[in-house]
Amino acid sequence: MIGLLLALVGLLIALLILQVYPLNRRVVLLQGSLADALRRRSLTLQHAGEGICGLDAQGRIEFINPAGERLLGYTLAELAGRSLHETVHQRKADGTDYPFDECPGARTLREGVEIHQVNQVFWRKDGSPVEVDIVSAPVLEHGAVNGAVVVFRDITEQRRALATLTRWQHVFEHAQWGITVGSADGLRLELVNPAFAQMHGYTVDELVGKPVLTVFAPEMHEEFSAHVRLADERGHYVWESWHLRKDGSRFPVQIDVTTVTAAPGQVLYRVVNVQDIATRRAAEARIRRSEAGLARSQAVAHLGSWQIFDTGNDLRQAVEWSAETYRIFDVPPDRPITLGFVFERIHPEDHPPVESAWAAALAGAPYDISHRILTRSGVRWVRERAEVEFDAAGRMTAAIGTVQDITELKAKEDELLASRQMLRELAAHHEQVREQERSRIACEIHDDLGQYLTALRMDTAFLGIRFGQEHPQLQAHLERMKDTIDETIGVTRNVAAALRPGALDLGLAAAAEWLLAGFEKRAGIRCQLDAPAAEDLRIDAERATAVFRILQESLTNVARHAHAGRVWVKIAVAAQDLVLEVEDDGGGFDPAELGGKRTFGLLGMRERALMFGGSFSIDRRAGGGTAVSIRIPVTEGEGQ
Q: Which of these, 433, 516, 620, 621, could form a disulfide with 625 (CB 3.0-4.6 Å)?
C-alpha cells in the first residue's frame, strides 16, 4: 500500500511538473510581450507629433510627452500636479475667462465621454497663444472614470494653409482672366474657372473633362503639341493663339502655361492662364497707326522728337530718338545715342550758347534754342525745344523735346534778311539822295529865288522913290507890292528851311533848339531841351539829319495826337550810341490799338534808326503821356 501511495504521489508530482512548467513558460513570455508593448507605447508617447497629456481624476497633470512640452514651453516637472485648465486653458482667444465646466478635460472627467473641440487656444509659458484642436478621452477603471488623456495639436500652420487655399480659391473663382488646369497628358481640361468658361461661351460643367482642343481654332491644332512640349521643357511658356467660342466665333488670346512636375519628365498637371487680347490688339493697332501717322507728320514737318529718362548729368546717358531725329542728324537708325554723342554733333562755335541754355534748363528755365549741327552731308540748322521734369529734390528725372530741321527756313530767313538789308540800304540811299535834293532845292530857292525877290523889292522901292510923290495912287500900289514881295520872301525862307534847315549846318543841338522854338511858337506847347554843347556832340551829317527828322516827326505826332502841355527832349551820346528821347505829358496811347494801325510816321522813324543799325521804341511814359526813344551807333571816334 505504501509503495502504491508513493507511486501515486510520484505520478502526481510528475503530472504537476508537466503542467506547471509550460504555465511558467507562458508567464515569462507574457511578461516579455507586456514589456515590449509598454516599450512601444512609451516610444509612441515620446515621438508622437501631437501633445499628449495624462490627467488624474481631479484634472491634475500626471504626465506630458515631449511634443506637449515643446508646444507649451513647459517641462513635465513644471506641469506635474497642476491643473491643465488653470495652467494653459484658462482664457479664450479674446482674453476673456474660459469657464472650467466647458473645458474638454473637465467635461470628460465629469461625463465620462470623449470630447473633441476645434479652434481652441492654449497659452504657452511665455504668455503667447497657440491655436489647437483638442481630443479628451476618459481613462476607465472598473467602469469608473479614473482620469483622462488629452491630445492637442497645433493647427496654426493648418489654418494658414487653409487661409491661403481659401484665397487661391477666391482668386480662381473671381479672376477676370481665364484659368484652367490641364491633365498630365495635356489633352483634357480638368478644372476651369468661371471666367474661362464665360470667355468661351460655355458653363463650367460643359467644359470640365472636355478635350483641350475644343477651345482652339482648327488652324491652331497642329502647332498645339509643339507649344505644350516647350512649356514642359521650360517649365513656363507664353504664346499667342486663336480660340474658338461655343458659337464658332474666334478671338485672339495670350496663353501662359506653367508645368507642375513631381520629378524631371513626370508631369502632374499644367496651370494655364488665358487672356482675351482682342481689345489689346485693337489698341496696339491704333498705336501703330498713330505712330505711323506721327512719323509721317514728323517727316513732313522735319520735326523729330527725343527723350531722356533719369539722366543726372551723365553724358553717357542713353537718349531715345524718333526716326525723323535720326534722319535730321544723318545717323543710321540702329546706332545707340548718348548725350555725349549729341553734344559732339553740335557746331563748335555753337557749343557755348547750347551748353549755357542746357545749364539754364537744368535750373528750371525753358529750353528753346537754334544752333548748327555737323552731319555727314554738311552743316544743318536745327531748333530744339524741351520740357524738363524734376523730382522733389530738384534733380532732373526726364527730358522730352523736339528737334526741327530749319536749314531751309534759315536759308530763306538769311535771304529775307539780306533782301531787307538791301531794301533798307536802298531806302537809305534814296533818303540820302532826297536830302541832297532838298538841300539843292533849298539852296536854289534861298540863293536864286531869294535874290530875284530881293531885286524885285529894290526895283519896287526905286519906282516909289522916283514916281511916288507925283502919283499917289502909284505909290499906294507900290507899297502893296512891297508887302507882297516881303511875304513871298518869308514864304521862300520857310520853304527853304523846311527842305533843309540852315541850323543843321551849325550842328544837331542847334537844329533841335531851332525846331523846338518854332514848334513851341506854333503849337503853344512848352518845350525843354537837354543837349550837350555842339563841340561835345560830333556826329556825321547823315546821322544828324536822321535824328533831326525823327525829332521833327515826333513833334508832329505830339501836335496831332497827344493833347500835351509840355515836351521834354534829350540828346546824348552814351556807350558809343547817339540817344534821342522825346517825352510828353499828354494822354498816352493803347499799344494794342497802335499795333493794328498803319502808322507810317512811326514806321518811318523806325526805319531811319534801322538804316544806321539802331533801335527805336515807343511806350507809355511813367508819369502819363508817351515816350519815344532811339539809339543809333556812332562811327569810330565819333562821340564820347
A: 621
Amino acid at 234: R
Q: Kindly report, residue by residue over 240-297, the tens digit of the pLDDT.
A: 999 999 999 999 999 999 999 888 878 889 999 999 999 888 888 888 888 787 778 7
What is the C-alpha separation between 500 and 494, in angstroms, rounded?
10
Under DSSP, the state recorded for 97 is: B
In tens, the pLDDT along 386-421 reads 988 888 888 888 889 999 999 988 888 888 877 777
What is d(CA 528, CA 517) in angstroms, rounded to the nearest whole number? 10
Half-sphere exposure for 94 (CA within 13 Å, toward CB): 1
Q: Are strands 566-574 and 526-530 parallel, antiparallel or unpaired?
A: parallel
Closest CA to 569 of 513, 622, 486: 513
Element (H, E) at 629: strand 626-633
DSSP code of residue 325: H
Q: How far is CA 76 from CA 43, 89, 126, 212, in A?
A: 17, 17, 16, 60
Q: Give the β-pairing of 577-584 and 378-390.
A: unpaired
Which residues are CB-neighbours of 509 under 8 A, at least 6 positions away?
529, 531, 532, 533, 534, 537, 571
